Amino acid sequence: MEDSLPTCIRMNTLKADVEEVVENLETAGVELTDTPLPYDFRVISSPVPLGSSLKHVVGCLYLQD
User: Fold this and answer.
1) How many C-alpha atoms does 16 have within 13 Å on its Cβ side?
2) Strand 8-11 vs strand 31-34: parallel, antiparallel, or unpaired?
3) Which of 39, 42, 48, 60 could cysteine-pair with 55, CB 3.0–4.6 Å?
4) pTM greater than the 0.90 cutoff
5) Which of 7-44 are b and which e, b meaning 16 or more Cβ less than 10 Å from the residue's Cβ?
6) Which 3 state secondary structure label does DSSP give 20?
7) 35: closest CA among 6, 3, 15?
8) Domains and CATH numbers, the chain
9) DSSP state string for the chain
10) pLDDT digits over 5-22, tens only?
């Protein structure tokens, strides 16, 4: 059986402050870890689908899966 690829998010630095978005997500219960890429984080766990989060809808972050 194949392992699923990890979900990552990429921050849009033109629309949001990266540290603020990460803090907001972590406050909401999203567990993130850094990746070697700038403004990119791996999603370890999330209590809600990030694709329907306000930060995604307004373009502050993009799902990379």
Assistant:
1) 21
2) unpaired
3) 60
4) no
5) ebbebbeeebebeebbebbeeeebebeeeeeeebbebe
6) helix
7) 6
8) 8-64 (3.30.70.1170)
9) -PPPPPPEEEE-TTTS-HHHHHHHHHHTT-EEEE-SSTTEEEEEE-SS-GGGSHHHHTTSEEEE-
10) 889 999 999 999 999 999
Token pair of 5 as six digits: 């690829």
Tokens of 36: 């070697």
Query: Which region holds residue 25: left if phi is over 0, alpha if psi is between -120 and 50, else beta?
Result: alpha
Q: Of 32, 1, 6, 5, whose CA–CA distance to 19 is shortest?
A: 32
> Tokens at residue 52, please?
């329907």
Pair of tokens at residue 30: 């999203």
